[in-house]
Design brief:
The chain has 152 residues and is α+β, with helices and mostly antiparallel strands. Helix content is 26%, strand content 30%.
């Protein structure tokens, strides 16, 4: 992780593999993302940022819900609760591209710049809906991962 943080701080784009389900359905476990170094003042509501927390040895990518002075309220799209306040200095960069298999999604297009604040609003006010949609998409995508044994 330290090498990735140093690369971002030295103004290099970083290509990384995601782990976890907190950003379903937009970012899935195993998707590749490109993180572009950016100053915290240049991000806005709806952007997906990469950040670190003290005491946690990982880089987290979540969506900005609210910008509050020198801090951000952020949350994973599929997290039912768990909004988190992070200081601006913890922001390493912005996710500008997602690769899902052979499909590449550029988050810097006009369409995504228009859509991002609406996704942030839905994530903030309808978290159970976003969680359910993300979970169901994963079930249909890979049913063997989410099967469970029924007990009679």
């Amino acid at each position: 992780m330290n090498a990735i943080v140093e690369a971002i701080k030295s103004n290099c784009n970083v290509y990384a593999c995601t782990k976890g389900l907190s950003m379903l359905p937009f970012i899935r476990n195993g998707n590749q993302v490109i993180i572009q170094p950016i100053c915290a003042g240049a991000v806005r509501r709806g952007d997906i940022v990469a950040y670190t927390n003290k005491g946690v040895d990982q880089i987290i990518c979540h969506r900005i819900l609210i910008k509050q002075g020198d801090a951000f309220i952020i949350k994973g799209d599929a997290c039912i609760g768990g909004q988190e306040r992070i200081p601006a200095e913890n922001v390493l960069g912005k996710v500008i591209c997602i690769q899902k298999g052979r499909r590449i999604i550029n988050l810097e297009t006009r369409f995504h710049n228009f859509l991002a604040p609406w996704i942030a609003c839905a994530s903030e006010h309808l978290p159970l809906f976003i969680f359910t949609v993300g979970y169901m998409m994963e079930v249909f995508r890979n049913p063997r991962v989410f099967t469970f044994k029924l007990v009679y």
